[in-house]
Amino acid sequence: MSLHAVDELDDAIDVTKGLLFPVDVRLWLKLALVTLFVGGGAGFPSYAFNFAGSGGGGGGGGGEPGLGLTDGELLLVVGGLVAAVVVFFLLFGALGAIMEFVFVEALVDGEVRIRRGLGEFWRRGLRLLGFRLAVTLPILLVVIGIIAAFLFPVFLGTGPEVGILVLLAAIPLVFVLAFVVGIVNGFTSVFVVPVMLADDCGVLDGWRTLWPSLTDETVEYIGFAVINYVIRLVTGTAATMILGVTALVLLLPFGGVGLLLLAGLPASPGLLGLALLAVLGIVYLVVLFAIWAVVLVPVESYHRYHALLVLGDILPRYDLVADRRPGDGGGSGGAPTDGDGPDGFGDADDGFSEDSDDGFSEDSDDGFGDGSPGPA
User: Can you tell me the distance from the alpha carbon of 38 to that of 25, in angstroms, rounded to the nearest whole number?
Assistant: First the structure.
């Protein structure tokens, strides 16, 4: 008997093609926006902040000559920037957690309702964010502890040897923790979120529902984790290659425009010339980012459909895509397509009719009218 994760590889392709083809530009664009937040290959932007160090010979309480800031003011600026970055990542993480439910609902119904989803799923999304932060916190504390253990001997003047030994000894622990956190967060996204969506429950209740199958079908879940890693490696490499080729192709016209701007500017372009080049570079990056989002649509849709099909094979009650399975709808052990999905995912609307609600009409329900379902 083969693994469900192997059996559903081809079915996931068929289901993905059924959602994305023939091409509906509006559907693709809305899915592109959603996958920017939930896409495994999208990641978070990284920011680096460099601040000038203090120079010697300054008067007491005097600030840096080039900055005109006292030490206290500089510390306040640094703290404000760090706080802004933390707030940004929390907001991005909250939107990403909410979009997890929007994405799964779109794969089940064939419709992307972003505005309504934000209103309907924000509470469950915040619970998911809190769970992710709680799971990730131990590894962050370990990393902070390792950094402190590395720097403390240096501050004491005993040399970096002890710190280096601590760092080398802690590397295996960091890798183990990162692996465990990755598995827990990954399974939460692809298996627990659909359970939360079907049962209208919280994260812990979703894990309680999933846990018996994890202990009974451990081999199936291990097989899924391994196969998912391999196919993500393949699809991620392919998507990166597509983006790289696109970046080179777009570099020709953007580079040509940049050369024309330089040729038309005086020998010392000044701030105006630098501003024009900066705007051109930003437009180039925005175009690449948009293309990357579109490339992620079939990649992330395939991976999430694959997980949903495997979940339906292991737990037929949570086969949310039973009516989308190719052939007889049974897959490799999933529930038959009798039109009765779990808790509200029936056959009333397949999401592809032209008059279906796309979530953007002015008179459609935006999800804020009757509150958000789900237990507190």
Answer: 20
d(C-alpha 279, C-alpha 189), whole Å: 37
Which of these, 107, 132, 89, lies nearest to 34 by C-alpha position?
A: 107
Closest CA to 118 of 361, 359, 298, 362: 359
Burial letters for 221-231: b for 16+ Cβ neighbours within 10 Å, e otherwise?
bebbeebbeeb
Q: Which residue is associated with the tokens 């008059």? A: 355
Look at residues 79, 54, 80 and name the one whose alpha carbon lies nearest to residue 67: 54
Q: Token digits for 49?
A: 């902040």
| Type of residue numbered 227 | I
Could you please report the per-residue DSSP string of 331-346?
A: TTTPPP-SSB-TTS-B
Percentages (nearest 5) of helix, strand, coil residues in the chain: 70, 0, 30
Q: Residue 187 has which token pair?
A: 């399974």
CB under 8 A, 24+ apart: contacts of 362-367: 364/116, 365/116, 366/115, 366/116, 366/119, 367/115, 367/116, 367/117, 367/118, 367/119, 367/120, 367/121
Give how far Cα 6 sits from Cα of 151, 171, 296, 331, 334, Å: 48, 33, 22, 11, 14
- pTM score, two decimals? 0.77
Residue 185: how many other CB atoms lie within 10 Å: 16
Q: The tokens of 88 are what?
A: 């940004």
Tens-digit pLDDT profile for residues 2-61: 899 999 999 999 999 999 999 999 999 999 999 999 974 333 332 222 333 333 444 444
Output the DSSP codes for 262-314: HHHS-SS-HHHHHHHHHHHHHHHHHHHHHHHHHHHHHHHHHHHHHHHHHHHHH
φ/ψ of 275, rounded to 5, equals -65, -40
Q: What are phi and psi of 304, to 5 degrees?
A: -70, -35
Collect contacts of 237-244 with beta carbons under 8 A, ≥24 apart: 239/41, 239/292, 239/295, 239/296, 239/299, 240/41, 242/295, 243/288, 243/291, 243/292, 243/295
In angstroms, rounded to a whole number, what is the distance separating the alpha carbons of residues 326 and 320?
A: 14
